[in-house]
Protein backbone atom coordinates (compact mmCIF):
# COMPACT_ATOMS: atom_id res chain seq x y z
CA UNK A 1 0.00 0.00 0.00
CA UNK A 2 1.27 3.44 -0.90
CA UNK A 3 2.86 5.40 1.93
CA UNK A 4 2.96 2.39 4.23
CA UNK A 5 6.41 2.15 5.74
CA UNK A 6 6.21 -1.61 6.32
CA UNK A 7 5.01 -2.26 2.74
CA UNK A 8 8.08 -0.31 1.60
CA UNK A 9 10.32 -2.44 3.83
CA UNK A 10 8.71 -5.62 2.45
CA UNK A 11 9.23 -4.36 -1.11
CA UNK A 12 12.87 -3.58 -0.31
CA UNK A 13 12.35 0.14 -1.02
CA UNK A 14 13.46 1.00 2.53
CA UNK A 15 16.36 -0.89 4.12
CA UNK A 16 15.79 -3.10 7.13
CA UNK A 17 17.70 -5.68 9.14
CA UNK A 18 15.82 -8.75 7.95
CA UNK A 19 15.80 -11.83 10.13
CA UNK A 20 13.24 -14.01 8.32
CA UNK A 21 11.24 -14.04 5.10
CA UNK A 22 8.99 -16.44 3.24
CA UNK A 23 6.25 -15.92 0.68
CA UNK A 24 3.70 -14.78 3.32
CA UNK A 25 5.55 -13.02 6.14
CA UNK A 26 8.69 -11.11 6.96
CA UNK A 27 10.51 -10.36 10.21
CA UNK A 28 13.03 -7.57 10.76
CA UNK A 29 14.64 -5.79 13.69
CA UNK A 30 12.60 -2.95 15.15
CA UNK A 31 14.42 0.34 14.65
CA UNK A 32 13.79 1.27 18.31
CA UNK A 33 15.51 -1.86 19.79
CA UNK A 34 13.63 -1.58 23.10
CA UNK A 35 15.90 -4.45 24.07
CA UNK A 36 18.63 -6.08 21.99
CA UNK A 37 16.93 -8.20 19.32
CA UNK A 38 13.51 -6.47 19.43
CA UNK A 39 11.92 -7.87 16.27
CA UNK A 40 8.76 -7.23 14.27
CA UNK A 41 6.86 -9.99 12.46
CA UNK A 42 4.59 -8.72 9.69
CA UNK A 43 2.29 -10.24 7.07
CA UNK A 44 3.31 -9.32 3.53
CA UNK A 45 -0.31 -8.54 2.78
CA UNK A 46 -1.14 -4.98 3.81
CA UNK A 47 -3.70 -5.21 6.57
CA UNK A 48 -4.24 -2.54 9.23
CA UNK A 49 -4.18 -4.76 12.31
CA UNK A 50 -5.65 -7.92 13.84
CA UNK A 51 -9.10 -6.31 13.98
CA UNK A 52 -9.15 -6.36 10.17
CA UNK A 53 -7.20 -9.58 9.58
CA UNK A 54 -8.61 -12.70 7.90
CA UNK A 55 -8.26 -16.07 9.60
CA UNK A 56 -6.03 -17.21 6.73
CA UNK A 57 -3.57 -14.34 7.22
CA UNK A 58 -3.65 -14.78 11.00
CA UNK A 59 -3.03 -18.53 10.66
CA UNK A 60 0.11 -17.94 8.65
CA UNK A 61 1.37 -14.97 10.65
CA UNK A 62 0.92 -16.41 14.13
CA UNK A 63 2.11 -19.87 13.06
CA UNK A 64 5.54 -18.38 12.42
CA UNK A 65 5.87 -17.03 15.97
CA UNK A 66 7.22 -20.10 17.81
CA UNK A 67 10.13 -20.76 15.47
CA UNK A 68 10.99 -17.08 15.25
CA UNK A 69 10.80 -16.68 19.04
CA UNK A 70 13.00 -19.72 19.58
CA UNK A 71 15.56 -18.48 17.05
CA UNK A 72 15.62 -15.08 18.72
CA UNK A 73 16.04 -16.66 22.14
CA UNK A 74 18.93 -18.82 20.95
CA UNK A 75 20.63 -16.03 19.03
CA UNK A 76 20.42 -13.44 21.82
CA UNK A 77 20.65 -15.71 24.84
CA UNK A 78 17.65 -13.90 26.35
CA UNK A 79 15.92 -16.18 28.86
CA UNK A 80 12.50 -14.54 28.41
CA UNK A 81 10.41 -12.67 25.87
CA UNK A 82 7.27 -10.59 25.55
CA UNK A 83 5.20 -11.02 22.39
CA UNK A 84 2.99 -8.00 21.95
CA UNK A 85 0.53 -6.71 19.39
CA UNK A 86 -1.02 -3.23 19.45
CA UNK A 87 -4.29 -2.52 17.70
CA UNK A 88 -5.32 1.11 17.07
CA UNK A 89 -3.87 4.29 18.47
CA UNK A 90 -5.24 4.11 22.03
CA UNK A 91 -3.54 0.72 22.36
CA UNK A 92 -0.23 2.16 21.18
CA UNK A 93 -0.32 1.30 17.47
CA UNK A 94 1.75 3.82 15.52
CA UNK A 95 2.35 1.94 12.25
CA UNK A 96 -0.88 0.85 10.61
CA UNK A 97 0.38 -2.30 8.93
CA UNK A 98 -0.22 -5.26 11.27
CA UNK A 99 2.78 -6.45 13.21
CA UNK A 100 3.76 -8.49 16.24
CA UNK A 101 6.56 -7.34 18.52
CA UNK A 102 9.00 -9.91 19.91
CA UNK A 103 10.85 -8.27 22.78
CA UNK A 104 13.63 -10.35 24.35
CA UNK A 105 13.92 -9.84 28.11
CA UNK A 106 17.27 -10.27 29.77
CA UNK A 107 16.68 -9.46 33.42
CA UNK A 108 14.10 -8.31 35.93
CA UNK A 109 14.04 -4.58 36.67
CA UNK A 110 15.17 -3.73 33.14
CA UNK A 111 12.91 -0.69 33.20
CA UNK A 112 10.27 -2.15 30.87
CA UNK A 113 6.79 -2.19 32.39
CA UNK A 114 3.86 -4.05 30.89
CA UNK A 115 1.21 -3.79 33.57
CA UNK A 116 -2.47 -4.56 33.81
CA UNK A 117 -4.24 -3.13 36.84
CA UNK A 118 -6.29 -5.57 38.89
CA UNK A 119 -9.89 -4.77 39.77
CA UNK A 120 -11.97 -6.30 42.52
CA UNK A 121 -13.85 -9.08 40.68
CA UNK A 122 -17.62 -8.72 40.23
CA UNK A 123 -18.39 -12.28 39.13
CA UNK A 124 -21.95 -11.46 38.12
CA UNK A 125 -20.72 -8.70 35.80
CA UNK A 126 -17.98 -10.98 34.46
CA UNK A 127 -20.52 -13.64 33.58
CA UNK A 128 -22.75 -11.16 31.75
CA UNK A 129 -19.82 -9.66 29.87
CA UNK A 130 -18.51 -13.07 28.84
CA UNK A 131 -21.95 -14.00 27.53
CA UNK A 132 -22.20 -10.74 25.60
CA UNK A 133 -18.78 -11.28 23.98
CA UNK A 134 -19.41 -14.94 23.23
CA UNK A 135 -22.58 -14.02 21.31
CA UNK A 136 -20.48 -11.76 19.07
CA UNK A 137 -17.77 -14.35 18.33
CA UNK A 138 -19.85 -16.24 15.79
CA UNK A 139 -22.29 -13.46 14.96
P1 LIG B 1 3.54 0.01 17.13
O1 LIG B 1 3.74 1.17 18.05
O2 LIG B 1 2.71 0.40 15.92
O3 LIG B 1 3.03 -1.24 17.78
O4 LIG B 1 4.99 -0.37 16.62
C1 LIG B 1 5.60 0.20 15.51
C2 LIG B 1 7.06 -0.11 15.61
O5 LIG B 1 7.67 0.11 14.35
C3 LIG B 1 7.83 0.78 16.61
O6 LIG B 1 8.37 -0.03 17.64
C4 LIG B 1 8.90 1.47 15.77
O7 LIG B 1 10.14 1.55 16.42
C5 LIG B 1 8.97 0.58 14.54
N1 LIG B 1 9.36 1.28 13.32
C6 LIG B 1 8.83 2.44 12.86
N2 LIG B 1 9.40 2.79 11.70
C7 LIG B 1 10.33 1.82 11.42
C8 LIG B 1 11.24 1.61 10.34
O8 LIG B 1 11.35 2.41 9.41
N3 LIG B 1 12.02 0.51 10.41
C9 LIG B 1 11.95 -0.38 11.43
N4 LIG B 1 12.77 -1.42 11.39
N5 LIG B 1 11.09 -0.22 12.45
C10 LIG B 1 10.28 0.85 12.45
ZN1 LIG C 1 1.52 -1.92 4.53
Automatic annotation (TrEMBL):
Motif (Histidine triad motif) on chain: 97-101
HIT domain: residues covered: 5-113
Pfam families, per the entry: HIT
One Gene Ontology molecular-function label: catalytic activity
CDD domains: HINT_subgroup
InterPro entries for this protein: HINT, Histidine_triad_HIT, HIT-like, HIT-like_sf
Positions of the catalytic residues: 99 (tele-amp-histidine intermediate)
GO terms, biological process: nucleotide metabolic process
Signal peptide interval: none
PANTHER family attached to this UniProt entry: ADENOSINE 5'-MONOPHOSPHORAMIDASE HNT1, HIT FAMILY PROTEIN 1
Name of this protein: Histidine triad (HIT) family protein
Species of the source: Streptococcus henryi
